[in-house]
Amino acid sequence: MSVLVERQGAVLIVTLNRPEQRNALDGATMAGIGRALTDAEHDATVAAIVLTGAGDVFCAGLDLKAFASSGTQLAESGPGLEVFTQRLYPKPIIGAANGPAVAGGFELLLACDLVVAADSARFGLPEVKRGLVAAGGGILNLPRRLPLALALELGLTGDPVDAARAYELGLVNRVVPASEVRAEALKLAERIAANAPLAVRFTKEQMRTVAGGTDPEELNRFHKLIGPIFGSDDAREGAIAFAERRPPVWTGR
């Protein structure tokens, strides 16, 4: 299974389970995360969620080989990542970055409420290097978390930052050895889960709203604009070049 789900008391642990593919996001994986979070949202016994990856990588982002071979379509039926990347998800989610989190992997962490990172982790939005854009929330969320010049540097260069720099920027809450990431994330989740559910939900909702919450109208406009980019010749060329391990040849179309 590409997504594993387990319980530890009131904490649900969701694990991306494609270590051979660096936990890259294909249709089945995105649908699996969506189903797990949708089920958790409606399960009163789940108080907090930990999202992590199997192996030594959190998530390498979109599976570009699958993207290239599918004609740039990866969608599966049912809820996907939008259940928490494109709306205010009601329950606390702690990202446990056991290793690198780039592109869609970094966007998953940006949608989490707290993040524990391995000291070996790195983070970035390299979509522009592949003719794509950070459509999973990176473009919208990063400028809310960082000064504009820093957000633009990450978004326009596509270059990553290491865990120490991410901590300096306030993008992660803790940096620990990789072997301690899951345990540290669980400790945070259990401390949250011990509190009153209604109070926790209200606190998250209000803090997220004040910080610049998800605006449905803004998201609708955003997704209308990005459609042509993901369907462009450059997007397909970027994915194919990645799969063929060669530099892309851009046409601007």
Written overview of the protein:
The protein has 253 residues and is of the alpha/beta class. The chain has a domain at 3-178: 2-enoyl-CoA Hydratase, Chain A, domain 1, CATH 3.90.226. Helices cover 44% and strands 15% of the residues. It contains eleven helices and nine strands. The protein has a six-stranded mixed sheet, sandwiched between helices. Strands 5-7-8 form a three-stranded mixed sheet. α5 (138-145) packs antiparallel against α6 (148-157). The longest helix has 16 residues, at 197-212. The mean pLDDT is 89.
In short:
The protein is an alpha/beta fold and 253 residues long. This is Enoyl-CoA hydratase/isomerase.
Blueprint of the fold:
Blueprint: E1 3-8, E2 11-16, H1 27-41, E3 48-53, H2 64-69, H3 82-85, E4 93-97, E5 101-102, H4 104-111, E6 114-118, E7 122-124, H5 138-145, H6 148-157, E8 161-162, H7 163-168, E9 174-176, H8 181-193, H9 197-212, H10 216-230, H11 233-243
Parallel strand pairs: 2-3, 3-4, 4-6, 5-7, 6-9
Antiparallel strand pairs: 1-2, 7-8
InterPro entries: ClpP/crotonase-like_dom_sf, Enoyl-CoA_hydra/iso, Enoyl-CoA_hydra_C
Keywords: Isomerase, Lipid metabolism, Lyase
Protein name: Enoyl-CoA hydratase/isomerase
